[in-house]
Each structure stands twice: as structure tokens, then as C-alpha cells.
């Protein structure tokens, strides 16, 4: 699979895939024309902001979101108290808390963060050293700006959650 990326149209991020590099059958496919500098500026992501229910913890994510997906794993379900959680990945360096600090909970070698006052689930790290950070899409100020592209950990999905959105499903994680 190619490297997924996003472009922005009117505030909505759309997933696209680059052709496989070096794969014979894709070699002759013309890439889309390079955007001009002005177009590139229009395509740059606006920082996405979000925070918890009570307003004690706020954050900002400046880079491109990717891997926007619904996770049906048991840990996400229990941690959120909801049937599944929708996540967006950001480079860790592009993400910062702008007000307050969350409570970090280490569980199953992963690190989840929550507002210490109201409990809103905010972020997920696969490890202390992870360079990627997942953010709960529903804690964004404008959750509509991101478009989920997949369901993951579907083998843990509750049977009464019926998927009808036509998105790709993965039994576990993507890899
Ligand atoms: Zn809070
Ligand atoms: Zn999960």
C-alpha cells in the first residue's frame, strides 16, 4: 500500500493514497500535477483544537491527521465507556496541551490520557517513546472536520454494533 496522506477541502480532510512506488504496474501512472505555492498554502492544515468536557484540559494538533479510524478493541471500549472509540493519529511533535495536564493511565503497556477532573478520554500512546499520538476525534472542537477511513480491531466488536458505512474493516490493527 502507498503512503496515505490527506488534503483539505473546505475544512474537511480527505484520505488519499499515493501509488505504490517502484511497483511495475504503477510505474507509468502520472502523478497529479504539483500544486502551486498558493495552492499548497491553502492545503496546509489549520491547527485542530479540542479538549475535555469540563474545559480543564485543552489541546492543539498542528500537523496532518492520518489513520482516522474507529477502534473496537476491548481496552478502548472499557477506557471510554462507549462501544468503540474514533481516533486520529498525529505526529507527537505536532501535538501539545494548551491548558491543564491530563492524567496518564498506563495499561497493557500503552498510555492513555484523561482529564483528571471530568474523565474525558483524550490521547493514546503505544509506548513512552512513540513518535505518533492518537487523539479521540470526539474530543475535537470540530469533530466533523475529520472523516473516518476504517474500522480496526473488528474481532472485538460488539455484536449489536452493525457496520453499514462501507469502510474497510481490519480484524486487528492495520499492520
Ligand atoms: Zn475535564
Ligand atoms: Zn482500541
Short recap of the structure:
With 175 residues, this protein is mainly β.
How are the SSEs placed, and which strands pair?
Layout lengths: L3 E6 L2 E6 L19 H7 L4 E4 L6 E4 L4 E6 L2 H7 L4 E7 L3 E5 L3 E5 L2 E5 L6 E5 L6 E5 L13 E3 L23
Parallel strand pairs: 5-12
Antiparallel strand pairs: 1-2, 3-4, 4-7, 5-6, 6-11, 8-9, 9-10, 10-11
The site of one zinc ion has 9 residues, from loops.
The percent range for helix content is: under 10%
Ranges where pLDDT stays below 50 over 5 or more residues in a row are 1-29
Overall spatial form: globular
The name of the CATH architecture of the domain at 46-156 is Beta Complex
* Structural class determined from secondary elements: mainly beta
Can you walk through the features of this model?
The protein has a domain at 46-156: Metal Binding Protein, Guanine Nucleotide Exchange Factor, Chain A, CATH 2.170.150.70. 8% of the residues lie in helices and 35% in strands. It is built from two helices and twelve strands. β8 (103-107) and β9 form a beta hairpin. The protein has 175 residues and is mostly beta strands. The strands form three sheets. It has a seven-stranded mixed beta sheet with strand order 8-9-10-11-6-5-12. A three-stranded antiparallel beta sheet has the order 3-4-7, with no helix packed on it. Strands 1-2 form a two-stranded antiparallel ribbon. It is globular. The protein starts with a strand and ends in a 23-residue tail after the last strand. The structure holds zinc ion (ZN) (2 copies). One zinc ion is lined by residues 52-54, 56-57, 115, 117-118, 120.
Amino acid at each position: 500500500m502507498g503512503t496515505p496522506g490527506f488534503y483539505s477541502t473546505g475544512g474537511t480532510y480527505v484520505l488519499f493514497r499515493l501509488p505504490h512506488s517502484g511497483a511495475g504496474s504503477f510505474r507509468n501512472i502520472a502523478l497529479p500535477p504539483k500544486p502551486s505555492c498558493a495552492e499548497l498554502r491553502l492545503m496546509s492544515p489549520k491547527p485542530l483544537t479540542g479538549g475535555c468536557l469540563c474545559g480543564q484540559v485543552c489541546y492543539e494538533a498542528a500537523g496532518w491527521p492520518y489513520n482516522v479510524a474507529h477502534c473496537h478493541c476491548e481496552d478502548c471500549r472499557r477506557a471510554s465507556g462507549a462501544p468503540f472509540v474514533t481516533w486520529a493519529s498525529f505526529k507527537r511533535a505536532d501535538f501539545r496541551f494548551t491548558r491543564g495536564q491530563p492524567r496518564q493511565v498506563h495499561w497493557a503497556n500503552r498510555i492513555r490520557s484523561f482529564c483528571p477532573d471530568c474523565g474525558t478520554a483524550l490521547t493514546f500512546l503505544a509506548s513512552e517513546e512513540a513518535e505518533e499520538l492518537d487523539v479521540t476525534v470526539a474530543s475535537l472542537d470540530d469533530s466533523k472536520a475529520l472523516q473516518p477511513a476504517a474500522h480496526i480491531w473488528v474481532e472485538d466488536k460488539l455484536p449489536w454494533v452493525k457496520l453499514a458505512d462501507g469502510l474497510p474493516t481490519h480484524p486487528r490493527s492495520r499492520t
